[in-house]
Amino acid sequence: xxxxxxxxxxxxxxxxxEQLIYNAGAYIRLSSDARRKPGDSLENQxxxxxxxxxxxxxxxxxxxxxxxxxTGTNFDRSxxxxxxxxxxxxxINCIIVKDLSRFGRNSIDSGYYIEKQLPAMGVRFIAVxxxxxxxxxxxxxxxxxxxxxxxxxxxxxxxxxxxxQQQNIQDGRFVGRLAPYGYSKAPNDCHRLxxxxxxxxxxxxxFDWAASGIGAGEIVRMLNEMKILPPSHYKQDKxxxxxxxxxxxxxxxxxxVVDILKSRMYVGDMVQGKTQTKGYRQSNVHxxxxxxxPNTHEPVISREVFDRAQTMFQRASExxxxxxxxxxxxxxxxxxxxxxxxxxxxxxxxxxxxxxxIYWYRCESQWKFHKDACFQVSVKEDxxxxxxxxxxxxxxxxxxxxxxxxxxxxxxxxAAADTELDEINRQLSASGHFLKSLYENMLGGLITADEFAxxxxxxxxxxxxxxxxxxVIRTQRREGASQREAYTGFANAASEAxxxxxxxxxxxxxxxxxxxxxxDKSFEIVLRFRDEFRxxxxxx
Length: 540
Known about the structure:
Layout: E1 3-5, E2 12-14, E3 22-30, H1 42-54, E4 59-68, H2 78-89, E5 94-97, H3 100-103, H4 107-120, E6 124-127, E7 132-133, H5 142-170, E8 183-186, E9 189-195, H6 197-211, H7 216-225, H8 231-237, H9 254-261, E10 270-272, E11 275-278, E12 281-284, E13 291-293, H10 303-326, E14 339-341, E15 349-352, E16 359-362, H11 365-368, E17 378-380, H12 381-443, H13 449-500, H14 505-511, E18 512-517, E19 523-527
Parallel strand pairs: 3-4, 3-5, 5-6, 14-18
Antiparallel strand pairs: 1-2, 6-7, 8-9, 10-13, 11-12, 15-16, 16-17, 18-19
């Protein structure tokens, strides 16, 4: 401690220790709970924190972190995580919140951050209205107690919200975030559906087509050719959807059309409760257990049109079943997930042309999307089998020869790797002993501290290089073993196919990466294995 003496007076003046200045981050959070307290507004939280800082000469505000419309029971929040990163980097060394509940409502996680993680990072924590300051070190039992109260409050709110939602469902009030396609929420009542005439006209046309016997696939094609926006893109165009995660593909799909044509919402019945949440998992509910309340809103179509559409669906389903019963036995799908259109890149679908069991692969982009989406690409399955088998037979000798050569090389490569690793371990051990002797020599005065530091740095660099080389060898051995296993499977599969003169789904999965079919019925066959065997077979 510095001292200044004054001979004239004999007094001693003590220098004051320099005051630590805390760089603070203000954390404010607005709950997603609709019934949140008025005093918890973002503006009010910020005012309370800034007024506190104004009266604290040892604290200066560096950054404001704000999470809006987020739950306090989950700590995966964007600005909360950004705040922790700034604390970790040293940009801030103090975190200030209005009260403990703004920090979080999960007692275990909140306690961990406040009592463990933040002190470990040297970060001061202040909850203004709870009069808590970690600098004082007197939190005692109050932190876990307050956090438990906050967590209990959050759980109670959650239970009440679920109960209110369930009652609304039972009463036939709409509880979804987005209204079904063809409807919108009433301006003065978010639980009531009103007809959106623009989309409803499309829905009526779809039901008219279905009632006249037009299948769902043909309806999809007509909607796409008419360039009608699919539901998610329509809602985006209306400003109802802003998140990209909620926007589907930019064209109609069969699944979407079928869901609309089977929904009783369009006859004025409220159908909800199709999913349930247990824990954190959401699962589908059996249709028999859906909650259906009749005549809750204005219908888009009549019940007669709806019933006629369902009758046509049922007839089409029965026809398909009859065709399947009369057809010859099913042939295994050995090229599943392997055949693609070379022009549009979409998977080609396997079809049985007739009851005789002749299979084709066909690009359905023109049918599923619109007529200009792609060419009418198709190829017989038997042609694919013939060409794949011919390619494998051509390369079987090279594949098996390479496998035999690899097997011969494995023992030599393994022995060389073992020898090098033994030498590395010997050098590492010797280097460790040498460093120990260097230290002892320094302590004994045989070398200076500077000499010790220089030699120590040299040997540590050598040790690091040896360790790095050892890691490389071990990685190569692991990769070599994995490659050998793959090579063995590849060679065995090729031998099996050639010997049995038959292709199976397992053999195709092992050997073939993909098959690209062109409009002129030529195609490319790409093998799965290493580059030297990844030959492209041109067939014309």
